[in-house]
Amino acid sequence: MNKFFIMVAQTYKNRVKSKSFLITTIVTVALIFALSNLQSLIETFSDVDEEKKVAVVTDNEDWFQSLNQVVSMNDNLSLEKYNGSLEEAQAAVEEGDFQSVVDVEQGEEGMPEATYYANKIANTGESDPVRQALQQVKVQYVTEQANVDPAIIQQMNAPVNFELVALEDSAKTAEELNQTRGLVYVMLFFLYFSVIMYGQMISTEVATEKSSRVMEILVSSVSPVSQMFAKIFGIALLGLTQFAILILAGYLGIQQSKTLGDGSMLEFFGFNDINPGTIVYAVVFFILGYLLYATLAATLGSLVSRLEDAQQLLAPMIMLIVAGFLIAMFGLGIPDSTFITVSSYFPFFTPLIMFLRVGMLEIPIWEVALSIGILIGSILLLALIGARVYRGGVLMYGKSTSLKDLKTALQLSKKEK
Amino acid sequence: MTLRLEKVTKKFGSFTAVDDLSLEIPEKQIFGFLGANGAGKTTTFRMVLGLLDQTKGEISWNGGDIGYDQSHLIGYLPEERGLYPKLKVQEQLVYLAKLRGMKKSEAVQQIESWLERFKVPEYKNKKVEELSKGNQQKIQFISAVLHKPKLLILDEPFSGLDPVNVEMLKKAVIDLKESGTSIVFSSHRMEHVEELCESLCILHHGSPVVHGKLKEIKKSFGKKNVKVIADFDLAFLESIPGVTKYKPLGDGCEIQIESEEIAQRIFEELQGKGFVRKFDLEEPTLNDIFIEKVGASYE
């Protein structure tokens, strides 16, 4: 077997068996199942079937009747006229006979006014139906006083018809935009977390081999350049494994929640029917983004000789991806601004921001091609520089926590002939 | 298969790490490569292994360049222990052997026999970090020789080992030489070098100050040692012309002299002074030569 693949296999094997890999995978799978079944979960934990009783204290029988009429449409709530005093009603609430008590009085100009008493008022979900019902009663009361035809009132209350139509043929419809926005969101998170997680893994791998000095043996058997790429591909394989597991979990979760009859969570993320072109772009940008950041991480990892220093040197890389992520988040709302357009050509931001633009806008193919070209160019350039830094970097020991070491490393790997 | 270095120079910026070094290490020989700390030994090894490019000069092995396609013929034991602390001994050795072009089944078999030979077969499935320093060194040694290299570089191979284990590894080194491996041996323990090496080179600030066969080096050094044990005070010997060093011992003294003739003079001076228990004319030790050649510049 080729030495390159021996190293890829070893890197992969080591990591796949590690506890941290198992734990993160299991936790994420659990999270995916929880998310895809969020609705049924919420329903399970809230006591839906228990009907809440609300006591009403009022002198006006008419108001109670109309209030009761409106509320009766709500399954979870029932009103009851309380014939005692307000104090007695409050005591009954404290004892748990009622969920709450509403004191409805005649206020200024004869309008109904109410005070809502409950043991806790944190959950507005409980008081809101009552408030809305009372609002309707008030409208009814006012219009009755003014002798307005109920049909007119109905017309007034009906929601207005408002439709969004893009005039450009190629522009995406609002529905499409919502779908891709969800996908772009997910993709941004995926790329962001993978770069941070796998980038750190790569530099840790390299730094571990250096700090244990096994690197001296390795560099004498395999060239540093193939070592570096073996690390990058080994960790990429690991990432693929993890994603395969997560996607499978996600698929199963979706299937499950579909059989339960609600796909609203998925619709929210626009997963129901995705444009295949967007998926292709997602994969392309993901792979290129990974390669770019992984090469950078391996290069930086080769400069340190102790594991603790690796974090410090990685900081600039993390800052780059965080900046890209923030710009992308900001760009989700205004994908066509000049700032977003310009930053989509900066190679370290391209995977996130160009993808956002392709997903959200209809942009000419040459723009995408140009940005991918720049991205691939930078990956090659970085790999070239990285390989040279790596060659020298792995021979450097001592405390090294600054980018000045780049120069030393390049000097060490200098081709003399 | 001869390793040949011709006028090799390595500069790091304005600093010259190795200066005009020429060596020849024939097959079936252990070559001592000595030098004070920072003399340029590791830099030389790294150039031989192809990790660094020399600024000037030629390095050839068997007439050709040394590249990664030949790494299965080369074994390297670095001065600092370099193993994966978290990996099990066998797993680790198999991996390193595979990188040197060995098949897994063959590697497993060899590992068994080496562990057996070093009397540590029970460590096969232990993590390296659980082993003692000396036992880690044995594993390190195995990793360097497992693939039967033709050129073996040993940098302080016996550090951290007790005398029994030193003998065991020494025997292994000699056996490897007998089977045709060229060995470059670097150590600060002069008695090991004297015992194992036929020829050697002492590097000082990047250039060789002593180079050749051990016997000839000793002969051409000229100075000899005289050890005297007597019942009377020997301090007067220090003032005899030709005595370069005087070191009192508990019941006598050790004297370094410029040449053999001075010994005769000393012998005469001792006559009639009292009872002399021991008078011994000795060859200089490698230790003396090293201190003389390398230490001179510190004074």
From TrEMBL, chain A:
Write down the Pfam families for this protein, in alphabetical order. ABC2_membrane_3
Give the location in the cell.
Cell membrane
Residue ranges of the ABC-2 type transporter transmembrane domain? 19-387
Parts of the chain that traverse the membrane: 21-42, 183-207, 228-254, 274-301, 313-332, 338-356, 368-390
- Source domain of life is Bacteria
Q: Does the keyword rRNA processing belong to this entry?
A: no
Q: Which UniProt keywords apply?
A: Cell membrane, Membrane, Transmembrane, Transmembrane helix
Name by which UniProt lists this protein: ABC-2 type transport system permease protein
- Give the organism, scientific name: Halobacillus aidingensis
UniProtKB/TrEMBL annotation, chain B:
Which positions are tagged coiled coil? none
The GO molecular function terms of this record are: ATP binding; ATP hydrolysis activity
Which InterPro entries is this protein grouped with?
AAA+_ATPase, ABC_transporter-like_ATP-bd, ABC_transporter-like_CS, ABC_transporter_ATP-binding, DrrA1/2-like_C, P-loop_NTPase
Query: Which Gene3D superfamilies would you find in this protein's record?
Result: P-loop containing nucleotide triphosphate hydrolases
User: Which positions fall inside the ABC transporter domain?
Assistant: 3-230
- Classify the source by domain of life: Bacteria
According to its UniProt record, which protein family does this protein belong to?
Belongs to the ABC transporter superfamily.
Write the protein's name.
Answer: ATP-binding cassette domain-containing protein
UniProt organism field:
Halobacillus trueperi
